[in-house]
């Protein structure tokens, strides 16, 4: 993922929305509202990029995404000819999703035929290394509310936290490896699930939810316990912690209104004063219970799932008993 900051007119004000307001639950949402009289003075911009929400003009994430994709396609057309001897470049996009740039190097060496996909995300700077990005689509929507609202991107704060953890944790800490393994098990398990539960499984156990669970668990105990020698134990702790959150239907966003973040990880005032958000509030109890049950089943059957759904060339030989 690469954030592409956009420069906007100065007359758009961020307006955080309450949990019971328009827009999806379980996420921080923010509108960019135009000031009074501004839409009349900048009518071409307002007509091309704004929608009405509760009687006020708001910058539309959907319209910005469509403009961004077209602009990117024109830029790509200008440079593709110069790049054709070194690589093949193409652009793909799904409705409501940021465009993805696909790069395939041209080489006579087999090892160099490794493609790369770069997701280019248009972002609205809020200051203090915070950005607003388009909310992910949640299926057909009859309301304009999702298009008029934006989500919060705190990836820079995640990097600061990871940097602090790297300094405090043992040199051979396994916390990132636990996250990678859990994400891999989630993806492999998804191959054997049928719709609509397969989509619910991926949405409930999103990468952001898994990272949030890991960060929350890391701050509950001594970091020395995350030495790589205890990889299996810590991975099981992470699975059980996530299971408990699903059963209680509560997993609070790690950065919004969290007073337990170490002081060494400097957070902007915007995050400190934000209202806490429950990342699981968008899902009903039966769905979360089913995901919790499937998560424990996946953990118990992990070796079998890995053998069944992984490519044989990535599997290591099983050692003799």
Automatic annotation (TrEMBL):
GO terms for cellular component: membrane. This is IPIL2 protein. Residues 174-257 form the Mab-21-like HhH/H2TH-like domain. It is found in: Membrane. The keyword Chloroplast does not apply. It is a single-pass type I membrane protein. Keywords: Membrane, Signal, Transmembrane, Transmembrane helix. Belongs to the ITPRIP family. SMART domains: Mab-21 (SM01265). Its main location: membrane. It comes from Hippolais icterina (icterine warbler).
